Please model this.
Amino acid sequence: MEKPRINLVGCGRVARSLGRLWSSSGTLAIGGLYSRSASSARSAAEFIGAGRPCDRLAEIGTADLWLIATPDSALAVAASALAAEAPLRDGDCVFHCSGACTSELLAPARAAGAMTASAHPVLSFAVPEAACRGFSGSHVGIEGELAAIARLERVFTAIGASCFTIDARHKMLYHAGSVFASNFTVVLLDVALQCYRSAGIEPETAAALMRPLVEAAIGNALRAGPAAALSGPAARGDLELVARQRQAVGDWAEDPGRAYEVLSRLAIELAARAPR
Ligand SMILES: NC(=O)c1ccc[n+]([C@@H]2O[C@H](COP(=O)([O-])OP(=O)(O)OC[C@H]3O[C@@H](n4cnc5c(N)ncnc54)[C@H](OP(=O)(O)O)[C@@H]3O)[C@@H](O)[C@H]2O)c1
Model:
């Protein structure tokens, strides 16, 4: 039986990583590759080792699945262009990979007869080679039309992902979970390094001080849950020290001072939920 074919619109990090995984596993045949710049479509074809770069959407050819992998801000425009210019057929499956936007953005493709969904791989694609190596065992959150969900579950499961469904109404909040867990953890580490530096600690010493604290905090929170892993003045109920430290941090820098105050409130609330 002939393999289902996928076209890729927007040939950046996610499209080329998934394209390589589907092609090398024999799950999907890679059809046309279209991107804003012709050079991206060409380099994606090289990275994937398959696919036909094309300069215009009208030349992309037919496919069973269509991945629109532009930045989130361009998804609506790309979906309209796809519906107007590409050879979409009734029942083709059009999807995007955004964690924050819903498949509603693909309404123009649905109006043209396609079924639509979104599939969000909870993984960093910053380095496509590394994303391909680490993809198996990752999680993919899917929402959209039922028939499209079933189709996407098949193709993502075939490359080693575990799929789960998301309620489209809460997708922004769902995505905020990853922002807090991943992006803001990094921001807090940067603020911590700035505190050490401003207190006169050398950068290498600061990094060495921070490492065991970060590893223990994250390890314990993942193993036992955040409430059991919490330590520090707020967790101990030392509110006088919390107030003095908030003042010191605020005198040093305004935004970290505000962050200290809000995070201390959240820490006190979390401590109240700790197992006794
Ligand atoms: N990066 C991640 O870790 C990650 C993880 C999960 C989900 N996602 C989601 O995956 C999607 C793609 O992200 P990405 O990281 O792969 O982005 P990216 O690396 O920036 O690639 C986006 C590509 O789309 C092309 N493009 C922009 N506007 C276009 C348009 N109107 N028509 C056609 N092509 C257009 C870009 O331009 P050129 O052709 O000029 O290169 C670029 O090649 C996003 O929805 C994102 O939220 C990303």
Q: What stands out?
A: The chain has twelve helices and eight strands. Residues 166 and 195 are 39 Å apart (CA to CA).
